[in-house]
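Q: Focus on the chain.
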Amino acid sequence: MSGPRVNSFFLGNSSGVNFSIILSPRDAETGKLQLANCSGSKRAGDWNLDVTPGVNTSKVTVSLSRTLELCLPNATECCPSPLCMVETLQVLACRGSVMLAQLLIQAEIFANSSFAGNVSENAAIIPNQAFKPLGSCPCNLTAGACDVRCCCDLECTPDFQQLFSGSCFPGVFGGDVNPPYDQLCSSQSMEYTPEWFPFLCVQSSLDNTPFLGYFYHGSISTSKVPSFKIPLQTSPGKPFTGYREGNPIITEEDEYFTVPQQSMAGQCVGNAPVAYLHNFDVKCPTNLESYKEGLPHDVRINSGTADFIQQNVVYRAITDRGKFITESEDLLAAEVLCQNVTFAEHYKFIWKDMNIEQVNVTVFLGSLCDGEILTQRFTVEFLSLNSTHGEELFENPGYQVGKPVKAANLNASDPLGSLNIWQPAGRGLCASATDRPVLFGVDSYSGCILEVDINEDCSFLRGNVTEKLNALIQATHIGKRDNSSYTDLNDWVEIIRLDPFSSNVSTGGLKGFCPDIPANLNIRIIYAKVGAVQGIPQQEILAVQISYSTVLWQFQCGLGCRNTLSFLPITASVQFIEVPAQPAPPVTRYQKIYAEFDCNQNEVCWPQLLYPLTRFYTGEPYSQCLAKGLFLAFLVLLATIMSNPWFSKLWNR
């Protein structure tokens, strides 16, 4: 151990077990530790032993009770040297005189180097970075004390520097603020030195280094932007022309309107912006300690035409707390602290064309007490102004992102089908896993764990895995649009199935070894944007393909190989691929020639060859760039003239 505290665990029933700690000095002649006995106590020297008993596990804590500060003049009970103590400890667990367990601890603890003095409030003089580095020792972060691994820190004594002399901070942070650069004539860092290097190398002192903060004085440039630069939007901006699908909703303060949502990692993000026409329903667990209020409900929302609308908020009380409280601890009634918090928020956006007409919010409040875990629910729903009784009319027949993909089994009497993926729960076993529908435009990856016996027959295992994967796809066709009719075959596309590879490889009687197990189901959905309805893209599914990927299953031997069960993870992935609605027109001859000069399609951009000579370049004043460019052109012209044969004849004359 290298700190003043260390934890360990004693596995088993600790009733009747006596824990003790002893100092174990080594024998001066043999170098071996002295034999330990069960007659010790829970304190030895400056060390204390604390035991926290549990059901089948007890936590054992060894802590140091002395200070670790370096000694000042005429001070006691401190560390006389940076290496404060080197001791060997033994922790024993005994029942009577029988030793049940033994823990050996080698403690090497250094003194604290933190600074506890007064810091001067005098303003530091910052040098001009064009001529002198801002700091000659950037790793010197603590005033009046030695910083570990900072070899340029003048406050470190030679004895203290020996502790980390072999692991100093490298580079600029470690004090090498003027490293030799490749252009120096004395630099040997280049692996290959061209023949012209001695002619063009730089003879300069390291004090005049290009690493001085990369400092330069640039003149104020024009506001024009070259064609190959992409502008970066730094603020949300007011959508005066209306919202389009996926645009973030903006508030009156020109900020995003946020509602807690789930991230790609599955965690809840409190400041996630709400996207126009994107419905969601999320659940976020929290407790009283980490509870935070969301965006105030008096914030006005930009309707999309530079007008602002107020939210219509209705507050209701929760009647059944059991639907939201998922876990609670048994606490005394006198010690429980409760607070009125938000249990659920339901947002309904009434929209028309590209604008928001109305926002209705229903907030459910309840009491949350200390020790309880609350599962908050947040829903956002967009309803058309022409909808009736909360049901959306089929104005846009295409799919919208987040809506379930419509499936059908047209070969059966009941055409209703399903296309699902797993939603594991508990231990993640396939036996307890539920499923959920595939959502349009949402790439998904899920799976579950299948328990396999070591004596499992490979053919039976392949059939069992294939059956579980096929259970997710109870359909033969997928609807092209969200309003596909079961009576019209033209509204559906047939699922293309690529059956798994049937293996006839013999395992030779080996147990726990099966090749070519179809453990991965791949669902690829190809779609295209075929039009737009009121500015909203109409998306249509063109084809669906299902394939399998095989793996090699091998029994994994656990501790002692006493368990005859192993685990096989099986997965299902969904990928949406967007293609053009119509084939792209053939490339003309002019486009092929122009592509050679397109900076976005080639690594070499010829239009940028003279970029430093244009007014878009802001690294130096334009007059200096022009002068250097003319001088370079003069050198090129001079070299061309001198390389001509008639020049050598004229020179010889």
